[in-house]
Amino acid sequence: MTDTSSIPIETDYFGNGYSLNEGIAGGTVSIFKAMTSDWARPIVHWSIEAIDPERQRAFYADLFNWEIGDGPFMQVAAGIGGPEPGPAGHIQAGSTARTSLYIQVADLRTTIDRAIELGGAELLAPFDIEGGPSLAAISDPEGNHLMLVQQ
C-alpha cells in the first residue's frame, strides 16, 4: 500500500494542502467531505465589546457551534482547520458594540438564515472572489459586522 497521508487533497484559505488518512486502502479522505455533523468555525483570535455580553455570548455560541470558555480570555476550540489549541479572546462590557471577525462556514446561505433567526441581519449577499473563497457579511444582534468565508 502506498502512503498517501502527505499528499494534499484539499487546500485551506491560504492555499496550504492537507489530507486525513482514515485507513482507507491506498487513499485519504478530505476532512470537509468526511464531516457528517456540524463543526466549530475556525478563527485565530477574537475580541467582542458588547452592551449585553451574555446575549452576545449566546448568539455566537449558537450560530457558530462554539463552546465559549470562562475567564478573562475565553477559549474556543479550534475546530477543523483552525489553529491549535484554539483561539482565545474575550467578551467584555463596553459603551459601544464592535468586533472584527472573518469566520469560515460550511454554507453561506444556511449561516445567514440562522443568523437572522438568532437576531442578526444580512448585510452583504454572498459573492465570489476570483480564484478564492465566497464571502458574505452579516451583523450580530448588536450590529457588529462579521464576514463569513466559504471555501
What does this structure look like?
It is a single chain. By secondary structure, this protein is an alpha/beta fold. It folds into two domains: 1-34, no CATH class; 46-150, Roll (2,3-Dihydroxybiphenyl 1,2-Dioxygenase, domain 1), CATH 3.10.180. Helix content is 17%, strand content 27%. The protein contains three helices and nine strands; from the N terminus they run E-E-H-E-H-E-E-E-H-E-E-E. It has helices spanning 31-34, 53-64, 108-117, and strands at 10-11, 17-18, 46-50, 74-75, 88-93, 101-104, 121-128, 134-139, 145-150. Strands 6-9-8-7 form a four-stranded mixed beta sheet, covered by helices on one side. Strands 3-5-4 form a three-stranded mixed beta sheet, with helices on one face. The longest helix has 12 residues, at 53-64. The protein is globular and about 40 Å long.
Query: What is the total domain count?
Result: 2
- Main sheet properties: 4 strands, mixed
Strand and helix order: EEHEHEEEHEEE
Q: Rough shape?
A: globular
Provide the helix percentage. 10-25%
Taking all Cα atoms into account, the compactness measure Rg is 17 Å
Strand percent estimate: 25-35%
Going by CATH, the architecture of the largest domain would be Roll
Specify the CATH homologous superfamily of the largest domain.
2,3-Dihydroxybiphenyl 1,2-Dioxygenase, domain 1
Q: How much is the average pLDDT?
A: 74
Terminal residue distance = 31 Å
- Strand order, largest beta sheet: 6-9-8-7
Low-confidence stretches: 1-35
- What is the CATH T-level topology of the largest domain? 2,3-Dihydroxybiphenyl 1,2-Dioxygenase, domain 1
